[in-house]
Design brief:
Elements (H helix, E strand, L loop, with lengths): L5 H14 L4 E5 L10 H9 L3 E5 L17 H4 L1 H9 L6 E6 L2 H11 L4 E7 L11 H7 L10 E4 L10 E4 L1 H7 L6 H10 L5 H4 L15 E7 L7 H10 L4 E5 L5 H4 L1 H14 L6
Parallel strand pairs: 1-2, 1-3, 3-4, 4-7, 7-8
Antiparallel strand pairs: 5-6
Helix pairs in contact: 2-12
GO biological process, one term: salicylic acid metabolic process
Protein name: Methyl esterase 17
Keywords: Hydrolase
């Protein structure tokens, strides 16, 4: 009998480990949020056995940076880019962005297409090139003008310059963002929401196309009763840059609070739909 090649055996075993690697979900919050926004989803997904990472972008969550001093999108999104850079070559993630977190997801697919198995946009800004044109702004920036003066603004560059940060006024947060969410989550959000670096988002432009970026599978999760990113606005972005699948969830702008169990089910279904098996 020929002698077995131990090197081949070791290689095959390692390959099997990589193939059967549990899906790793990475969650990105919207403007003013933080990793805390995903606490319900993280608990559920971890109970299913999945690896979960929730990140704070610059000035968000427990990051101490001043949002009025973050003037570029690259600076704001650096924690996500640093995280993806730290992954080994054989590690891959399912990247999930909520609301303005969709811009972070798109940026990441341009820079690390080979490390992202699936890009998921949840009630999110999904623009192929970011805010390159006036139409991009119209398509991707929420219009909440019907609620009046919604935002508290700060002018870090001076009163005669454009605002550098913004947050939805505390008394309007439940009505606009969380009208279907449990009261305890509304209370948590009103305590933890921070001004987002408004000025930085103006430079969210993705001019250079990576050859592999379009190969990253994308799905969109449409929030049916959203008062921030309204369903018709989501439909326009979907039509302009069609993903492989569109899922609909009955929720306000924050399904991570108002319908987390269904959201988790959709995330798993979306992953399976692109040809992977959740072990």
């Amino acid at each position: 009998m020929p002698k077995q090649n131990n090197n081949n055996k070791k290689y095959s075993h390692k390959s099997m480990e990589i193939q059967l690697e549990k899906p790793h979900f990475v969650f990105i919050h919207g403007v003013g949020g933080g990793s805390w926004c995903w606490y319900k989803v993280k608990c559920l997904m971890k109970s299913y056995g999945y690896t979960v990472t929730c990140l704070d972008l610059k000035s968000a969550g427990i990051d101490p940076s001043d949002p009025n001093k973050i003037l570029s999108f690259d600076d704001y999104n650096k924690p996500l880019i640093d995280f993806l850079s730290s992954l080994s070559d054989h590690e891959h993630v399912i990247l999930v962005g909520h609301s303005a977190g969709g811009l972070s997801v798109t940026d990441a697919t341009r820079k690390f297409p080979n490390k992202i198995r699936l890009a998921v946009y949840v009630a999110a800004t999904m623009l192929k090139s970011g805010f390159l044109t006036e139409q991009d702004i119209k398509d991707g920036v929420p219009d909440v003008s019907e609620y009046g003066a919604v935002y508290d603004l700060e002018f870090g560059l001076g009163p005669d310059k454009p605002p550098t940060s913004a947050i939805v006024k505390k008394e309007l947060q439940q009505k606009v963002i969380y009208h279907m969410s449990p009261q305890e989550d509304v209370t948590l959000a009103t305590m933890l929401l921070k001004p987002g670096p408004l000025h930085a988002f103006q430079s969210a432009q993705f001019r250079e196309e990576n050859e592999g970026a379009e190969k990253v599978a994308r799905v969109y999760i449409k929030t049916l009763y959203d008062r921030v990113m309204k369903p018709e606005q989501q439909d326009k972005m979907i039509a302009k840059w069609p993903p492989s699948n569109v899922y609909v969830i009955e929720s306000d702008h924050s399904p991570n609070f108002s319908n987390p169990l269904i959201l988790c089910g959709i995330l798993v279904k979306a992953y399976v739909s692109i040809g992977h098996t959740c072990t």
